[in-house]
Amino acid sequence: MSKQVNPAFKAIAKAIAKGRKFFVAGHQNPDGDSLGSTLAVCSFLRRQGKEVYPFSNDRPGDDLFFMPGLDRINFSVLPDEFDFDTMILLECSDKKRGGNLDPLFDSVKTVINIDHHITGENYGTINYINAQASSTAEIITQLFEYMKAEITPEEATCLYTGLVTDTGRFLHSNTTAESMRVGAVLLSRGADIQKINTVIYNTKPYKELKLLGRALEKLNLLNGNTLAEITLTSKDFDLLGVDPRHTQGIVSQPIMIPSVEVSLLLREEPGRIAVNLRSKGRVDVSKVAVLFGGGGHARAAGFKVEGAKLDEIKNRLVSSVTKEISKLQ
């Protein structure tokens, strides 16, 4: 483990030891990192004899249903009673990122906030936000090491899923020597990389391939071919019989075009517009996402706007990104 450990690790370990009943959640529309970290933390807490209520506001894409322990997650169902002493939120850059959890914030004594977004807010009783970490899974692995906790093969599989998806199989610029070290640790603890690679990277349902094809057909190049934009409407999803959670990875496709600096994916969801932004590296898209109430990383960010008109959001978004691109030399 890295020699420099944030003092918050000590406070987190103390809170975990003291806590009895835990509510644990990742962010809405969970990805591999959010869900993998949630599952690993819940497994660890149970092994310590704690009561745990794992929660996810939304169900993940089909490619993540192989993850050990997923059948114990409470999807979209909050508990009848809010009698928890500790809440752990993972990869939630603000209080709303996990869903409508205000009753939990009002009732628990301790809120542990663990995140790796540069736009992360210090809303917890204990906060550990490390924007240099590749993923929350990387942080959780370090925390387990700090606590001298044995990592089970199932926990390693969940954490490796988070690590490998957030680093793009160690291809993204957020990959560091520490990321590679953590990956090696998780492999040594029994992470099932064959299953992870097969299910996530070498398996794609027919409908998702059709959706990818439709998305690429709708790809537009703007601003002198430096900005790529894809818009998927509710009609697109209805036509193919898919829903917005099947769009994972689509926004990254246009980044392969040599001239493109930023890629945008806009999608219509019931009652709202959801947007994903990706950057080749020279434009900090998290700055743009913040303007619309979202957040994320320099190279990957997003936001959602309730009750907005698609064309209005698109025009404002393209204008904002174009301004950022114009700053490049």
Structure description:
The chain is α/β, with parallel strands linked by helices and 329 residues long. Helices cover 37% and strands 19% of the residues. It has helices at 8-18, 32-47, 102-107, 136-146, 153-166, 177-188, 193-201, 206-217, 234-240, 285-291, 310-326; strands at residues 21-25, 51-56, 74-75, 86-90, 110-115, 126-129, 220-222, 227-232, 262-269, 272-279, 295-296, 300-306. The strands form 2 sheets. A 6-stranded parallel β-sheet has the order 3-2-1-4-5-6, covered by helices on one side. Strands 7-8-9-10-12-11 form a 6-stranded mixed β-sheet. Strand 7 and strand 8 form a beta hairpin. Helix 2 (32-47) runs antiparallel to helix 5 (153-166), helix 4 runs antiparallel to helix 5 and helix 5 (153-166) packs antiparallel against helix 6 (177-188).
Spatial ordering of strands, largest sheet: 3-2-1-4-5-6
Share of residues in strands = 15-25%
Biggest pleated sheet? 6 strands, parallel
Rg (CA only): 19 Å
Structural class: alpha/beta
Please describe the topology of this protein.
Blueprint: H1 8-18, E1 21-25, H2 32-47, E2 51-56, E3 74-75, E4 86-90, H3 102-107, E5 110-115, E6 126-129, H4 136-146, H5 153-166, H6 177-188, H7 193-201, H8 206-217, E7 220-222, E8 227-232, H9 234-240, E9 262-269, E10 272-279, H10 285-291, E11 295-296, E12 300-306, H11 310-326
Parallel strand pairs: 1-2, 1-4, 2-3, 4-5, 5-6, 8-9
Antiparallel strand pairs: 7-8, 9-10, 10-12, 11-12
